[in-house]
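#structure-requests
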Amino acid sequence: MEYTVSSTNSENQFRAFAPSRRRVKNAQSSGQRAWVQVLALPIAAMLVAGIVFGLQSYNIGFWSPGHGWTSVHGLALMSHVSPENGMVGYTQAFQLDDGSIAYHYFDRYPPFFTGFMSLFMGITDDMPLEIMIFRHIMNVIYLLMMVVTYFLVRLWIDNRWLAFAITVLSFSPFYMLLYKDMIHYDQPALLMMLLLVYTIARYKLGDWKVWTVYAAAVGAVSMGRGYSSFFVLGLWFAIETVLLLIGRGDTQSADSENTAQNLPNRFRAIFRQPSLWVSVVAVVWAASWLGYNMFTEARVRDMPISDTSIVNSALRRLPFVGYNAGVHEKPHSSDKGLAGWAYFAEVQTERQALWFVPARFAGEMFWRFDVLNDPVEINWPRLLTGIGLYVAAGVFIARSRPGLRIPAALLAFGGLFWLFFMINLTTKHIYVTMYGVGLTIVAYMAILGWLQRFPRMVYGLVVVSIALFALGNWQSRAYMLDEIERATEYTLDFNRIQHAIEGEDNAIYLDFFYSQPECIIDNHICFAPGYYLRNNFLTVYEDQRDYVLSPRPFYAVPRFAEPGETVQLVQKPSHPENRVVYLMDPKTSVEREMPAEPEPMFRYGEAITLQSWTLDGSVTLNACDRVFIESWWLADGAIDLNYNMQVVMVDASGGEVTDANAPLSRTPTQLWDPNLFAVDVRPLTVPCDTPPGEYPLIMGVYDPESLAPLAVTDSAGNGVGNQIYLTTLFVQ
């Protein structure tokens, strides 16, 4: 039998089994869309990371607001980690008058984060680069917080793009971004707190075993200021205990109609809860490290544990033994601004709103002083927004599915409970409000969760969230650059100073008479020397000095000189190009003999006389060159104010080109001893864009508060105005 197949049928059969061009094209498009869907979210995450690193303010200075002094405090601790002190850092080492060493402020946290950060100390001898390495490590920690938050949000939000947008919005507020690269212990603690909540949630859902919760709890209390995670664990235990006692816990008896019969069983069930034993393990682990730190400090400082800085800090900071408990009458200088629980509740609610609104739209707010001296000024929009966050979080928790209600409560309120418990610390330090980010996350889920039903709107929200995140980063960068110009000069100066100091373990005398002896920057906490001069000892005893560190480009012994006395004057800093802090070697001093009989050249006001002056250098110089003006002064009576002296370089029309403006001499004029000579040496740098020509130098003395200049009379008693002509500089 023969079979014949028509050409028409054959073509139809082929068409039935072979894919059409349209089908091939559709299949290819589907594959491309699948790849786009897979890669789109990682690309968006990389964009967020690029914004963080690309808009980083490359600041290398430390200034007095929280970000600056807190960073230098952390660096000081990290720079003094060594096997000799048990890997427990301290901030400063002072050499005392008998040659012994006094150590200040030991680390009170487990050494893991400090030890990790110390690994990066000394990998470069360029201090600005070293600081930026640390700032970028903190940026990485910030991004890891966002990653953990994304996975947390995904437990409640099915739409991954909505979860991404909520995460980005939660980390977009100006103050969150302002403190993201602060080099300290709070960001790693917050990262681990978020990871702990995520682990508890996965355990409550039945996805993970209980050992993962133990591991997460131990890790959380071990990292940075990880003691804050006690309040996540404590809240978890408290919630589950209450649920057990009211008959709604996971382990309640099936025949619970008779509450009285089941109540003993419920009490016994409390001791079978994982939340209890996880908390116990975490507390014991953390207490062991705290005890180790205290023992190490007591051993190194040779003192009882009760006298250690760790114990003293606890006595100031814990709420029931510190200042808000009324135990101490006079607050420590770092604990001013204590206001009581109700006042702090209002402040913290406003701060929470500030940490919720993206970018800088909620305005500014810094910590407040004593309520008795600084009355409460309520910002009602911000306060009501903060209250709204609490309400939104409460509603969200109540509506969460059973396995996620407790994790939602831990996320929203665990960090906030720590802020209230540590009121003696957190009243002042606004940066710790970052521990309330969990409330922000829950509030955003409550407010934006409904968008899951509208995918296209979610994509628009993603774009808006990234734009707000970029705006917040830009605003924080601009703020940093405006605030830290002078603080950056300190780091640049010390970068040169570190290379000028020969060897290690030198005693560096701090000649900073105008502030606390250990302060060398505009910084009320004064931890800067511990980091900047970490391989050397500091001292406030002149006879111990190997080097002298001063805010002036000179150093004179004695501070005041009698007529006919010889003065040892060091006026050649190791780096004359420094601007705000100078290192000098006393071995390079020169002698200056005071005249036996004072002969004033000019009198400023009623009691200040200029005895002599000289220019250290040629009057002929180039643009960018620097000269030093040395002058000797005398008080022939009491001086009523602390005066500044200014040397001004002027052009042919009398306009100011540059000046050298600072307090007169190294001792405030109100403290001058009558009939004793005082010296002043100050640098004057010719601006690099100065055109060739002749530039007179004039000198004046004035009150820095009112800016009123002192009238000048010459040696004959004739008035000459309020300034004198010194000499003329010839710029080539």
